[in-house]
Amino acid sequence: MRRFQYILTLQLPTRTGLAVQTWANTADVPPGTSRHTVYKEVIGQCTAGAPEWATANVIFWSLEPDDLEPAGVPSSTSASVPPQRRG
Questions:
Q1: In this structure, what CATH number is given to the domain that contains residue 43?
Q2: Are 62 and 6 in contact (CB under 8 A)?
Q3: Nearest to 1 by CA among 66, 63, 59, 57
């Protein structure tokens, strides 16, 4: 399993304007799972308690690996690179 962070924002028309809701969390995803499968699963989980949101418009969707750097790769080397001089 690999952990991903997702952010999902939905927009729903109402009688008085628009309602907007954002969800952010992590999901453990088995290898070989498609992005579309994760997308549909996340929408289903986020809207389970409020079915009216299941028909809302998606205005933002992000799915990224939760780890900030791959295993075995050293952190940024920028500290060892001298800044360039201007002028």
A1: 3.10.20
A2: yes
A3: 66
Q: Give the chain's domain count.
A: 1
Give the model confidence (pLDDT) of 13-57 as tens digits. Answer: 999 999 999 999 999 999 999 999 999 999 999 999 999 999 999
Domain hosting 20: range is 2-67
DSSP labels, the chain: -EEEEEEEEEEEEETTEEEEEEEEEEEEE-TT--HHHHHHHHHHHHHTT-GGGGGSEEEEEEEEESSSS-TT-----GGGSPPPP--
32 occurs within a structural domain: yes
Q: pLDDT by residue (tens digit) across 54-83?
A: 999 999 999 999 998 766 666 554 444 455
Q: Is residue 11 included in any domain, yes or no?
A: yes
pTM of the predicted structure, to 2 decimals: 0.75
